[in-house]
Each structure stands twice: as structure tokens, then as C-alpha cells.
Amino acid sequence: MDREKVIIRVSIQGIIMNLILVAFKAVVGLMANSIAIILDAVNNLSDAFSQVITIVGTKLSAKAPDKKHPYGYGRIEYLSSVIVAVLVLMAGITSLKESVEKVVHPSKAEYTKVSLIIIGVAVVVKFFFGSYTKKMGEKVQSQSLIASGTDAFMDSVLSLSTFVAALISMFAHITLEGILGVLLSVFIIKAGLEILLETLSSIIGDRTDRELSLAIKKEICGYSGVNGAYDLVLHDYGPSRSIGSVHIEVNETMNADEIYRLTRKIMADIYEKFSIGMTIGIYATNVTNPKIIEIRTSVYKIIKEEEHVLQMHGFYVDEERKSISFDLVVSYSAPSTAEVCKRVQDKVLKKYPEYRCDINIDHDFSD
């Protein structure tokens, strides 16, 4: 599936649908003197403009990498989502101002059966199009489409509330236009804030998706010669554009040729399966020296005594330099990572005073 073509096709469909709804709702809103329907039309217009921004952002983000931007322009999609969020917020704030004025100075709306039919059709159309847009967004990993689909779902609910208010106005002669307009505005503002915060989180750098991380580690650990996969880090350069790094643990007896063929195979397979360019580092595990195996077992016991240490890996003893080195994965809940490291180091040196102890602190980015 061509991701760019899918996003553009769905966005164009959304633009056409929203513009049709804008035309019908604007006419009905003006004829019925309904601020709620007019604001609903404005919301549809902002949705159409947002999808134009999505198309522009998608086209720009598809530009090929160049010397200045070697990882491509994928993050432009996130910037386009920020623009969409700001537009939604502006529409919400404007509609809130108008609605408050309507509450202070109310005027009776005049609905007809035709206007009710149009509102009802809008509810159904937005509901099914929202479902379709969100599904396609998840399929192609498009934050913009997912946001548009979610927004369309919300629009259908808001249009339904407008429909209910119209029925109440027709049969109970109670005007709820201003109050409903305020509620609609609050929902619009809320949607804009959610899109903005979610996109900013992606730009800042989200935590690696746990399921993806576990799937990659499981794939790597399935290769003969790999004793473990650690320190997985993924860098996001836009939807479906990621590079990463990982350390694999292998026996010290493997030679350079064997390690080279193993890592090249892993990198090729990971890229084919996950579309992630991976750099692989090596941890060598001592497996031939009984004394070193005994030291590793003792250090593992020391590690288990620390509640905030989640994992130890990369363990290696250099007899020539008289050093014990390993990585510790420390929980974010630890009051002081430095204190955890110092306690472990002191215990290791107490048991093996003839060695130096080098500890590298890791945080688990995936679990």
C-alpha cells in the first residue's frame, strides 16, 4: 500500500464531504437562525482546511533525503499536525465567544423538517467517515488521519446533540442554542488541545512502543549465536521512518567474520520486517574461564538485592586490566540512580577487591 497515496486520497474525500456539509449546514443554520448549526458548519470548514494542511504536509514529508537533511523530511507531518491543532483551537475559541454572546442575548431558532433531515444525515455521514478515516490512519500509521477520524467521531456526537436541541426547540419551544454552542466550543477546544499535545509529544520524543520493542528483541534473539538483545533505542524521523541501535550479546569465542555475517543478516532482516535501519553493537560474554563464570554468578546475586535494578547485561571480566564491567538497567522509580550504582559498586569491590568495577547506567526505554 502506497502510504502517501492513501493519506491524500482519504484527505481529499474528507475535504469534499466536509465542504458539502458546510454548504448544507450554513444554509440551514442561517434559515433557522441557529448558532449551533452555524458553528457546526464552521467546524466542518476547519476540518476541510485541516485536511488540506494534511495533504501539503504529506507531500512535503515525502521529499527524498538530501545533504542537509540526510534522514528525510518525515517530521514535517508532525508540524502539519501542529498547524491543524492550532486551527482547531482558533475555531473553538471563536465559536465560544459567539456562543457566549448568544447565551447573553438569546434569539429563537426556527427549524423545519428539511433542516432536521439534513442534520440527521450529517450525523450518519460523519460517524461512518470518522470510522473509515481512523481505520486508514492506523493502517498507514498517520497521526493526522487518526486525529481527523477521531475528530469526525466527535463531530457526529456534537451534530447529534444539535439534532436533539432542534427537536426540543420544535416541540417543547425551549431554546438551547447558546448553551449548546458553548458545549460545542468546549469540545472543539478540547480536540485541538489533544491533537496539539499528542503531536508535541511525538516531536519531543515518545517512549519506544513496548510491543514493537519486544517484537524486535524477540526477532533478534531468535538468531543462533545471539545470547540476548539489549539497549534498544529507536529514533523517529517521521511516521514509518525510524533508525535504531541495539547491543547483542555473543560468546567471546566468536571471531570477527562470524560476528560480521551475523550482524549483517540481522540488520537486513530487521529492515525488511520492521522498516527500521538498525546499528548493532556487541557485548562479549566470557564462557571459557570458570573463575570468570563464578564472578558473574556472584555479581548476579548482588544485583538481585537491589529492588530498583531491573537488569544486568554486557558483563565482562578483563583479567589483563583486572576490571569487571557491566551495564545496569535502573528503574525510573529509583530515588537516586547514582546511589544505586554506588551501592552495587561497593558490594562488588568488597567481594573482589583486586578488581576495578566499571558500571554503565542504562534506563529501559522499552519496558
Structure commentary:
The chain is α/β, with parallel strands linked by helices. The protein has two domains: 3-204, Cation efflux protein transmembrane domain (Alpha-lytic protease prodomain-like), CATH 1.20.1510; 210-362, 2-Layer Sandwich (Alpha-Beta Plaits). 63% of the residues lie in helices and 15% in strands. It has helices at 3-32, 35-61, 76-104, 113-140, 143-172, 177-204, 210-221, 256-274, 290-304, 337-351; strands spanning 228-236, 242-251, 276-285, 309-318, 323-330, 356-362. A three-stranded mixed beta sheet has the order 1-2-3, covered by helices on one side. The chain has a three-stranded mixed beta sheet with strand order 4-5-6, covered by helices on one side. β2, α8 (256-274) and β3 (276-285) form a beta-alpha-beta unit.
Quick recap:
This protein has 367 residues and is α/β, with parallel strands linked by helices. The chain is 63% helix and 15% strand. Helix 2 runs antiparallel to helix 5 (143-172).
